Amino acid sequence: MVHVEKRAVKYHRGRLGEALREEIEALVEGELGDPRIGLVAVTGVQLADDGRSAQVLVDVEGDDEEAERSMEGLDAAKAYIRHELADRLRLRRSPELVFRLDRSEREKARVEELLARAKKRAKTAKKPRK
């Protein structure tokens, strides 16, 4: 019976993580007036096993300097975001939020670009020269 309980807890944590992601994204997009925060997309939330902390993965449009400013703005708004999450999701205790920069989409695009170049070079190398 222990496996059933663990599965239920894991399912609940997944649902809560997705709800947190949606609410944080809504807050960041519309309600935070900090000028440091640019175009930010919340790509994921990883909730700790005990539910007391959560890593919030964010993708920031722009260069590294803009990303740094946006991360500072998000860190400054952390207490407000936690308060709003507890209120909106009716949580007794909102998890401690840790914002992390997520560059996986950019890295993925870069790898795909390099693979396309390599494929193009391989095709031109195979063509017989006259």
Provide the structure class.
alpha+beta
Query: How many strands, which pairing sense, and closed or not: the largest β-sheet?
Result: 3 strands, mixed
Flag low-confidence runs.
Answer: none
Gross morphology is flat
* CATH H-level homologous superfamily name: K homology (KH) domain
Q: Total domains, how many? A: 1
Span of the ends, CA to CA: 73 Å
Using the 3D structure, state the CATH architecture. Answer: 2-Layer Sandwich
Helicity, as a percent range: 55-70%
Radius of gyration: 20 Å
Task: Write a compact overview of the structure shown.
With 130 residues, the chain is an alpha+beta fold. It has helices at 2-31, 64-76, 78-88, 104-126; strands spanning 40-47, 53-60, 96-101.
Which characteristics define this entry?
single chain; alpha+beta; 3 strands; GMP Synthetase, Chain A, domain 3; 130 residues; 4 helices; 3-stranded mixed beta sheet
Topology record:
Elements: H1 2-31, E1 40-47, E2 53-60, H2 64-76, H3 78-88, E3 96-101, H4 104-126
Parallel strand pairs: 2-3
Antiparallel strand pairs: 1-2
Tell me about this structure.
Strands 1-2-3 form a 3-stranded mixed beta sheet. Helix content is 59%, strand content 17%. The chain is α+β, with helices and mostly antiparallel strands and 130 residues long. It starts with a helix and ends with a helix. The protein has 4 helices and 3 strands, in the order αββααβα. Helix 1 packs across helix 3.
